[in-house]
Design brief:
CATH architecture of the largest domain: Alpha-Beta Complex
Structural class: alpha/beta
Shape: globular
Helix content: 40-55%
CATH superfamily of the largest domain: 2-enoyl-CoA Hydratase, Chain A, domain 1
CATH topology of the largest domain: 2-enoyl-CoA Hydratase, Chain A, domain 1
Largest sheet: 4 strands, parallel
Order of helices and strands: HEHHHEEHEEHHEHEHHHH
Number of domains: 2
Distance between the termini: 33 Å
Oligomer: single chain
Number of strands: 7
Radius of gyration: 20 Å
Strand content: 5-15%
Strand order of the largest sheet: 1-2-4-7
Length: 232
């Protein structure tokens, strides 16, 4: 599944007809994390073997997602625990069903976050709250997740996919280059000085000024109509 997911992300980034990526769980839960039987089997592995397994399988997902400049939305349903919570954190925006529960449950089985949770979570909820969740492994319901900024919205479970797809459609019908370059700029800004960021954004702005979508937006404003963006 991890290999297929990484391949699907690479394909989605390359395809012009894909504007937005939506991730959700198949079944009642988003992802419940690691399998207990597999955990027991891994105890016999050498430390180097386990490290290499993480690098070649699980870590491909967050590293690939960091190269995706298209919006990635998580429709989080049911349980999102351990690696499952990490997978939700990797997405740009999280929309949760009202019955969703999150937990960084690694500590409950004597492990450390293996899929990037200790990197993503502090950036989303702040260091103190992140350490609280990472150290205790306690469950957070959807409303608490919303209050701490872990998710963007909470909706009834029956409406989760339709609501997320409606938001995805709104983004997909927007000026795609503007949206993608804005994501790049926002992500890269975290590791940049202001002067470097402004230099980067001036390059991005120079690109989007020449797009058909920018010209269409200006014409629509003058004509007092809604713009129709074509992604060019």
């Amino acid at each position: 599944m991890l290999a297929d997911w990484a391949a699907a992300l690479v394909e989605s980034q390359a395809r012009d007809d894909v504007r937005v990526i939506v991730l959700t769980g198949a079944g009642n839960d988003f992802c419940a994390g690691g399998d207990l039987k597999e955990m027991k089997a891994r105890v016999a592995e050498s430390p180097l073997s386990r490290k290499n397994s993480l690098a070649t399988r699980i870590h491909k997902i967050p590293l690939t997602l960091l190269t995706i400049d298209k919006p990635v939305l998580a429709a989080v349903n049911g349980a999102a625990t351990g690696a499952g919570m990490d997978m939700a954190l990797m997405c740009d925006i999280r929309i949760a069903a009202a019955d969703t529960r999150f937990a960084e449950s690694y500590v409950s089985v004597g492990l450390v976050p293996g899929a990037g949770g200790s990197w993503f979570l502090p950036k989303i909820v702040g260091m103190s709250k992140a350490l609280e969740l990472l150290w205790t492994g306690r469950f957070v319901d959807a409303n608490e997740a919303l209050a701490m900024g872990l998710v963007n919205e909470v909706v009834p479970a029956a409406d989760l996919l339709s609501h997320t797809h409606a938001f995805a459609s709104r983004l997909a019908s927007g000026p795609s280059m503007s949206i993608r370059l804005t994501k790049r700029a926002a992500r890269q800004a975290a590791g940049m000085e202001l002067s470097a960021h402004l230099d980067l954004i001036s390059s991005h702005l120079a690109l989007v000024v020449g797009t058909d979508d920018h010209r269409e937006a200006l014409e629509a404003i003058e004509a007092k109509r809604r713009p129709v963006f074509k992604g060019r």
